[in-house]
Design goal:
Elements: E1 4-6, H1 19-38, H2 42-49, E2 53-62, E3 68-79, E4 85-92, H3 97-113, E5 120-126, H4 134-148, E6 157-161, H5 167-181, H6 202-220, E7 229-233, H7 237-248, E8 252-258, E9 261-264, H8 271-278, E10 294-296, H9 298-302, E11 308-311, H10 320-325, E12 331-332, H11 341-350, E13 354-355, H12 357-360, H13 363-377, H14 383-408, H15 411-429
Parallel strand pairs: 4-5, 4-6, 7-8, 7-11, 12-13
Antiparallel strand pairs: 1-2, 2-3, 3-5, 8-9, 9-10
This protein binds nicotinamide-adenine-dinucleotide.
Length: about 425
């Protein structure tokens, strides 16, 4: 099966309504609003509305049973005006071209907002990773890498973990690419194991960054973080490290959920005890029980009276129906695109503070940059230096967004997009 590289002209989401097409429509609308504010030249706006390159791959794989199956793989490179394309690799049954396009564009804006010298890209395979054995996942990842290889590289396009992938998949990508290229290429992906040219603190970085902006938001709202009650949806790489960081700072989580269900305790969940529970063989989040803890549904969690609601799972979770009923006093978007466009407008009308995804979850790509910098220059980034730089980067971006939002009255999301877009356009014009 050959790679098919589609031309980026006339990019429209496929006709069928999918979670990816909803996300794509949202990100396009966010872009056009910011573009109108900045009065972009039409040709520049047109280029940024599409992607630079879109790769669709058939990825054949022999299952453990001996059955041959074909999986759809994608890599969308949105823009590289500011540096090599950069963005995660997602394994999920809902991955489609629209979703990957939207997530690739978000990466362009995120890197620009944090002033990281990368562009934006995203990749994915339409697969339920939970149903594959480790051996199957390894074969799939290696085959995807072989087929994608001409399009990624240390100075070209640098993937990283996302939903359904982790350090393990990144190590397979580096290993396969290094074999094929006949030389080590550690900087071809980030988010690698620390033992495999990864960066200390990268695994926790997205959650730590979300924690830093959550504390800063509470401070600006005049709320003591030790009195704050929080709820988080999603307890994967991002959600878990966000929770651990904030609980360690003294915040109280009253509800936590993942795909298996949710847990609720109005007096606060003992996060350390939950972690001990999850270490037991076969334990899942929804099976956690302790005095005062009861089950809670995923939608119910979004409606709780909390100081900060943190959606950290997937896109399109905060819908108009959720906004109508939620009692949350602020939202920090840990996931990419967790709020639909209509819901965003309703939240803005209500004046509810929302830290947008391209700011809130940018800690991962910040530390990815430090890792890539180490890999490609030999510079060393220890944990102390990494965490100090991450903190400075997150707080600097927060300050810029907060100030612009205060000046324009258009909210933090518009401010974040306007800052990012102006930087990308300046690079394109240069
Ligand atoms: P992950 O696969 O490690 O975790 C996803 C979590 O969401 C899991 O706990 C899963 O059980 C949960 N989940 C899935 N569907 C759910 C549902 N319907 N209700 C409740 N929980 C549900 O993925 P991740 O890396 O933690 O990514 C989460 C989000 O953060 C995604 O939007 C991703 O794009 C974004 N993000 C990730 C990174 C990173 O460094 N990994 C960086 C920036 C942004």
């Amino acid at each position: 099966m050959a790679n098919s590289i589609s031309q980026p002209g006339g990019q429209k989401p496929p006709a069928a309504q999918t979670s990816g097409s909803t996300l794509f429509a949202t990100t396009q609308r966010q872009f056009t609003r910011a573009a109108a504010t900045l009065d972009l030249p039409p040709a520049v706006a047109e280029q940024l509305q599409g992607s630079d390159r879109e790769v669709m791959l058939s990825v054949p794989m022999t299952m453990d049973s001996g059955e041959h199956r074909i999986f759809m793989g994608y890599r969308v490179q949105h823009n590289n005006a500011r540096g090599p394309y950069k963005g995660g690799l997602r394994y999920h049954p809902h991955v489609d071209l629209s979703e990957v396009r939207a997530l690739a564009a978000l990466m362009t804006w995120k890197c620009a907002l944090l002033d990281i010298p990368f562009g934006g890209a995203k990749g994915g395979i339409q697969v339920d990773a939970l149903k594959l054995s480790v051996g199957e996942l390894e074969r799939l990842t290696r085959e995807y890498t072989r087929r994608l290889l001409p399009n990624i590289g240390e100075q070209v396009d640098v993937p990283a973990p996302d939903v359904g992938t982790s350090e393990r998949e990144m190590a397979w990508v580096v290993d396969e690419a290094s074999k094929l290229l006949g030389k080590p290429v550690p900087g071809i992906v980030t988010g690698k194991p620390v033992t495999h040219a990864g960066n200390p603190g990268r695994r926790e970085a997205t959650g730590r960054g979300i924690g830093i902006v959550t504390l800063e938001l509470l401070r600006r709202l005049g709320k003591s973080h030790t009195d704050a009650k929080l709820a988080i949806q999603g307890y994967g790489n991002v959600g878990r490290h966000t929770t651990l960081f904030l609980a360690n700072q003294g915040c109280t989580f009253i509800a936590i959920s993942d795909i298996t269900g949710g847990i609720y305790n109005p007096n606060g969940i003992d996060v350390a005890d939950l972690e001990t529970h999850l270490k037991q063989p076969g334990a899942i989040l929804a099976s956690y029980r302790a005095p005062g803890v009861t089950p809670i549904g995923n939608t119910e969690l979004l409606l709780l009276p909390v100081d900060v609601l943190i959606p950290a799972a997937l896109e399109n979770q905060i819908t108009p129906a959720v906004v109508e009923a939620t009692q949350a006093r602020a939202i920090v978007e840990a996931a990419n695109g967790p709020t639909t466009l209509e819901a965003q407008d309703m939240l803005a009308e209500r004046g509810l503070p929302v830290v947008p995804d391209i700011l809130a979850n940018a800690g991962g790509v910040c530390v990815s940059y430090y890792e890539w910098h180490s890999n490609t220059t030999g510079a060393g980034w220890d944990l102390e230096k990494t965490n100090a730089a991450l903190r400075a980067a997150m707080l600097g971006a927060f300050e810029a967004v907060w100030e612009r939002a205060a000046q324009t009255g258009r909210g933090m999301r518009a401010a974040a997009y306007e800052i990012a877009l102006a930087r990308v356009v300046a690079a394109m014009e240069a």
